[in-house]
Automatic annotation (TrEMBL):
Residues annotated with N6-(pyridoxal phosphate)lysine modification: 673
Catalytic activity, EC: 2.4.1.1
One MF term in the entry's GO annotations: pyridoxal phosphate binding
Keyword Ribonucleoprotein: no
Annotated InterPro entries: Glycg_phsphrylas, Glyco_trans_35
GO cellular component: cytoplasm
Organism: Devosia insulae DS-56
Cofactor(s) needed: pyridoxal 5'-phosphate
Name of the protein this chain belongs to: Alpha-1,4 glucan phosphorylase
Family, as annotated: Belongs to the glycogen phosphorylase family.
Length: 825
């Protein structure tokens, strides 16, 4: 049905006021008429809902305005397709960005409600695993801030990332239920729903003009229903939409089946349909290889493309201009099937010929790679794709034929290089490589740090890079300084504003002015006082959750991130064991008191990662309770790491552990958050650490360990780690203690295999980096003993962080990949 043209000057309601009085009366009104509660009986959750609805109204005013502006100007729209958006809480972010935090606080106070309590009541939207999902959330906020008309597309999982609890030091996974109290931020858009097909077959259809075209006849259909959340940028300048899809059966009650007497069958079928969006896959590297995951990927890709094409047709009536008006960014390969799906829509539905469709597709898509870990590179069995998505599989074959043809034409590729280029992996059972598909269907392929992008060219995509030079580029990650400095660290924000004025909040490059205050003792003392207050607050969290008392005057040494062998929490805990034994054997020495804070989730099926959590907890139990340690070393594992816990931990960190095996961490973004909050980094030359070193200078960061080149060299030579262990008495002793059961008397063999791996292959270079790491930790101790030096370094970290703002990253995507203008660019 043709859509009515938009009337862009239709009336709008009057803008909502931002004063305390207006907010107060509206909160009461929302509580009464939208939540349906009398204030005398209202519960905290009712107040939270009323407050969110009140704040939301202010955002909606700007949302309408932003969307009208996009229709009016017909600027290019950006679509960010991501299977994960790790948003966390939205209310504080929204209030802070539109500048109503204090009036809302005052309004609630008049009802005897504490804003801080409400903020802590809001559940985290944990629709992601880790770095990739959090990056998508930072990007959404930055795209609104730099005024890019952008839409995020993803899945509205009913259950986000599992809740982690500890049972005797082991991780247990419990379901997460963020929607339990409803979600006042979202708008269900029943009118924006699309049918998504699965299975079936492909049929030739005769056209009236005598040509034939192919048509996919799916065996099964689902409905994708849109849920929209407004994402507001800094100072409320622009509001964009995060559109998450929810799966529903086409016929919600399957009445025919039900009435025919198959009651259970009818209900089962309808819940099977909804299952597609029920839970987030909790693995962030090992491919589940499961059909449901592929269904999720196609489901949200197809819904998003149908929506994009519909909106484009509504505005322009013709798909020929698609790549002029639309840029689609693929967040890793998870939405890579979109490339085949767009080709199908263009060719089979809109009758476009192959060549222009392929050209348009490449001009529309960009692909971001987030990992080189071989086990995290997605591939799908050819048979599964043929069964689930028969037409898309035909298109993939046709794309592959085109690519291989171009490679042969160019010449100079060996058979093994051709095999490496191919979209089909022929080693063993045949599989489609989604990375290769995403690469060939995009005009831009980017890595997420300078080192990572270089490694993409040298390793994973070396042959595709030769065939299609200039496509690989770098976009070093960033984080939003609103959430990761202004909101999570109000004390530091106030201090900086007092010193250099508040303008840095609108232009983070002004933070560099702090450099000249870095050696000022008064400023250092103030900086230290802010850090100490944050540490007192974290110490309270540690006491409340774990019953462990830690001193805010000790160094807070923090490693928080997903638990993974390449991130080397094991290296950190082995060094803690070595330090423990030093403290015991040399009680006379002047040891620097440290609190080692760990937090992070392990993929449920990743045994070694779960064992590392148990080891940290086992070591904690012994060290924290040994009187000989005299409180000089504490080890703490905070359960259920999530965005909100990160916001409490990071402002309290003195030392940031970024110690991955060089070449394995694509970028890291936690590293940037710690830097912003004035922690000093101990790290390897990996991911974005390399660029942090450039920004902050070698005097303000502690670097150690093998470089990526050296790691590769040692692996190629299959060099044995034994000599590193033999050469280091401290390491040998710590390993022997762990593997002989000193920390696991109830099960002395618990860590034998884990530690055995270090003697055997040591793939992650834990043994071979140990001495360098331990020496770097002693350098850190020395710095801590010179507080003037320490705080000058800490201040310089904050001073030089602005390049790691996701505003900078997004502006580069906009200019260099999407071709859209940005504010201040
Ligand atoms: C891969 C897979 C494989 C199939 C099973 C499910 C699944 C889920 C996620 C992933 C991708 C993991 C890649 C990832 O999170 N990379 C991280 O991206 C961050 C943002 O660019 C970056 O800072 C981290 O260094 C990188 O590890």
């Amino acid at each position: 049905m043709p859509q009515k043209p938009l009337v862009l000057d239709a009336p709008v309601p009057e803008r909502r006021a931002l004063t305390t009085e207006a907010l107060q009366s509206e909160i009461l009104e929302k509580l009464t008429y939208s939540v349906g509660k009398d204030p005398i009986v209202a519960r905290p959750h009712d107040w939270l809902k009323a407050t969110i609805l009140t704040v939301r109204d202010r955002i909606i005013d700007q949302w309408m305005e932003s969307s009208r502006e996009t229709w009016r100007t017909s600027n290019k729209r950006v679509y960010y397709l991501s299977l994960e958006f790790l948003i966390g809480r939205l209310m504080r972010d929204a209030m802070s960005n539109i500048g109503v935090m204090e009036p809302v606080r005052a309004a609630l106070k008049n009802f005897n409600v504490d804003l801080g309590d409400l903020i802590n009541l809001e559940p985290d939207a944990a629709l992601g695993n880790g770095g990739l999902g959090r990056l998508a959330a930072c990007f959404m906020e930055s795209m609104a801030t730099v005024n890019i008309p952008a839409y995020g597309y993803g899945i509205r999982y009913v259950h986000g990332l599992f809740r982690q609890e500890m049972s005797e030091g082991w991780q247990v996974e419990l379901p997460e239920d963020w929607l339990a109290h409803g979600n006042p931020w979202e708008f269900e858009r029943r009118e924006s729903s699309y049918e998504i097909g699965f299975g079936g077959h492909v049929e030739p259809v005769q056209e009236p003009d005598g040509t034939t075209r192919l048509e996919w006849r799916p065996a099964e259909h689902l409905l994708a229903v849109a849920f929209d959340t407004p994402i507001v940028g800094w100072r409320g300048k622009r509001v964009n939409t995060l559109r998450l899809w929810s799966a529903q059966p086409i016929d919600p009650i399957l009445l025919d089946k039900f009435n025919a007497g198959d009651h259970i069958g009818a209900l089962e079928e309808s819940s099977r349909a909804a299952a597609v969006t029920r839970v987030l896959y909790p693995a962030d590297s090992t491919p589940s290889g499961q059909e449901l995951r592929l269904r999720q990927e196609f489901f949200f890709s197809s819904a998003s493309l149908q929506d994009i094409v519909r909106r484009h047709m509504q505005a322009y009536g013709d798909l020929g201009s698609l790549s002029d008006k639309v840029a689609i960014q693929l967040n890793d390969t998870h939405p890579a099937i979109s490339i085949a799906e767009l080709m199908r829509i263009l060719i089979d539905i809109h009758g476009m010929a192959w060549a222009p469709a392929w050209k348009l597709t490449k001009a529309t898509f960009g692909y971001t790679n987030h990992t080189l870990l071989p086990e995290a590179l997605e591939t799908w069995p050819v048979g599964l794709l043929e069964r689930m998505l028969p037409r898309q599989m035909q298109i993939i074959y046709a794309i592959n034929a085109e690519v291989l043809g171009e490679a042969r034409k160019m010449g100079g590729f060996t058979d093994s290089q051709i095999a490496n280029l191919s979209l089909i992996d022929e080693h063993g059972s045949r599989r489609v490589r989604m990375g290769q598909l995403a690469f060939v269907g995009s005009h831009s392929i980017n890595g997420v740090s300078a080192l990572h992008s270089e490694l993409l060219k040298k390793t994973l995509f070396s042959d595709l890079d030769r065939l299609y030079p200039e496509r690989i580029n770098n976009k070093t990650n960033g984080v939003t300084p609103r959430r990761w400095l202004l909101q999570c660290n109000p004390g530091l924000t106030r201090l900086i504003s007092e010193r250099i004025g508040p303008d840095f909040q609108d232009d983070f490059s002004l933070l560099a002015q702090l450099d000249k205050h870095a050696d000022d003792p008064t400023f250092q003392d103030q900086f230290k006082a802010v850090k100490r207050a944050n540490k007192v607050a974290l110490a309270q969290v540690i006491k409340d959750r774990l019953g462990i008392v830690v001193s805010p005057d000790a160094m807070f040494d923090v490693q928080v991130k997903r638990i993974h062998e390449y991130k080397r929490q094991l290296l950190n805990v082995i060094e803690a064991v070595a330090q423990y034994s030093m403290i015991r054997s040399h009680p006379e020495k002047d040891w620097v008191p440290r609190v080692k804070v760990f937090a992070g989730k392990a993929a449920p099926g990743y045994w070694n990662a779960k064992l590392i959590i148990k080891l940290i907890n086992d070591v904690a139990k012994v060290v924290n309770n040994d009187p000989a340690v005299r409180g000089l070393l504490k080890v703490v594992f905070l359960p259920n790491y999530n965005v909100s816990l990160a916001e409490q931990i990071i402002p309290a960190a003195d030392l940031s552990e970024q110690i991955s095996t060089a070449g394995m961490e694509a970028s890291g973004t936690g590293n940037m958050k710690f830097m912003a909050n004035g922690a000093i980094t101990i790290g390897t030359l990996d991911g974005a650490n390399v660029e942090m070193l450039e920004q902050v200078g070698p005097d303000n960061m502690v670097i150690f360990g093998l470089t990526a080149d050296k790691v590769a060299e040692k692996r190629n030579r299959s060099e044995v780690p034994r000599s590193a262990i033999d050469a280091s008495p401290a390491l040998r002793q710590a390993l022997e203690a762990i593997s002989s059961g000193v920390f696991s008397p109830d099960d002395p063999n618990r860590y034998r295999d884990l530690i055995g791996g270090l003697y055997d292959h040591d793939w992650f270079m834990v043994a071979r980096d140990f001495d360098a790491y331990a020496a770097a930790q002693r350098d850190i101790d020395e710095l801590w003993n010179k507080p003037r030096k320490w705080y000058s370094m800490a201040i310089r970290n904050t001073a030089h962080v602005s390049w790691f703002s996701s505003d900078r990253t997004i502006s580069q995507y906009a200019k260099e990949i999407w071709g859209v203008p940005v504010v201040g660019g």
